[in-house]
């Protein structure tokens, strides 16, 4: 029996409406705060659910593009990107203050998440946003990414994240959603995928290569088909192997 502990996070407040089922199964959540989805009503509702289930709360800012669900790269100036991200996070923070809850982390969404993993200019905007807050807030980042390196250089606390429901390329980028192998929908495949990353600190890429990876938190997308049943089975399988969810 192994003595591992991990965090499981989920993206919520994105209009799916399954948060009441997801919250008992996760230990942290990323709340859409108006960029790709969400508004003050949805944020407040999800915050209350997270508080009820003692789930750590993160902000999930995005390119301001609800039409494309934040999954298309936008050509914004650094100033404009900073302004929208700061505004989105502040909107969530104002609700958290009302509920007497602290913001645990920030996790960029979609195209922005993928961009800051490889693009220094965009990643530096995220760094400046994080530095603009007085209280230390963690940043969920991919292993060996540009944003991770910059955060460490700027003394911003990071948490390495991997995806339970997404396949990887050999360079640790996520397989494009335009490809049929992008999403993992099978519970046994998902468990093998996640447990391999926990136990061996390696992920099997779609090319078949075994690639080193580190992760302390694992994400399942709340809008994934059958996210609730996938999460339930994943937790059962992990706990059978002695992996604790924290």
From TrEMBL:
Gene3D superfamilies: Glycoside hydrolase/deacetylase. CDD domains: LamB_YcsF_like_1. SUPFAM superfamilies: Glycoside hydrolase/deacetylase. Coiled coil: none annotated. Keywords: Hydrolase. GO terms for molecular function: 5-oxoprolinase (ATP-hydrolyzing) activity. Pfam families: LamB_YcsF. Its EC number is 3.5.2.9. It is an enzyme of class 3 (hydrolase). It comes from the Bacteria. InterPro entries: Glyco_hydro/deAcase_b/a-brl, LamB/YcsF/PxpA-like. This is 5-oxoprolinase subunit PxpA. It comes from Thalassobellus suaedae.
